[in-house]
Specification:
Helix content: 25-40%
Strand content: 15-25%
CATH architecture of the largest domain: 2-Layer Sandwich
Number of domains: 2
Strand order of the largest sheet: 2-3-1-4
Oligomer: single chain
Radius of gyration: 20 Å
Structural class: alpha+beta
Number of strands: 4
Distance between the termini: 16 Å
């Protein structure tokens, strides 16, 4: 998707919804000084272009008792052949909330939420390491997320 397929009104709508996707179209329209129907049409178009993918609930894992957040690099025996089957098996592990195919000496990077370090050990050794094709993991525990945000919406690529 080229950045020039969206204009300044699209950018303003996206910025308005980034922190609260539940905001009503009428509220966005009032903020931007445009009509409610324009906001509705623009959001529909942004969804069709796959720029806005979905509105979703954001859950705080720590408040649910998931006190350990970690990132694990996963090394595969045969990256080309093992990638899809391993990713399919990783998706079945509920503690893994994100899986990325990456460059470098490892093939995958996963984000894992666990109740504690013992729970993390179980996920790593009793679940991930048991998947055929997985050679090993290199795991880092996150103490806290300093910040998290969506990509910036720039005008003219600047």
């Amino acid at each position: 998707m080229e950045n020039n397929q969206i204009d300044s009104i699209d950018r303003e709508i996206i910025e308005s919804l980034k922190d609260d996707a539940r905001k009503s179209y009428l509220q966005v329209a009032k903020e931007l000084g445009v009509s409610n129907s324009m906001v509705h049409q623009r959001i529909g178009r942004l969804k069709k272009l796959d720029i806005i993918t979905k509105e979703k609930l954001s859950i705080n894992p720590k408040e649910l008792g998931f006190d350990t957040c970690s990132f694990a690099y996963i090394e595969l025996r045969e990256p080309v052949n093992d990638l899809r089957p391993v990713a399919d098996q990783l998706e079945k592990i509920p503690e893994i909330v994100e899986c990325n195919h990456i460059s470098g000496s490892h093939t995958l990077l996963v984000k894992i939420y666990c109740k504690n370090n013992n729970h993390l050990r179980i996920v790593l050794y009793d679940k991930i390491h048991q998947i055929p094709g997985v050679v090993g993991t290199n795991t880092f525990i996150s103490f806290e997320t300093a910040f998290k945000r969506e990509v910036p919406i720039f005008e003219h690529g600047l």
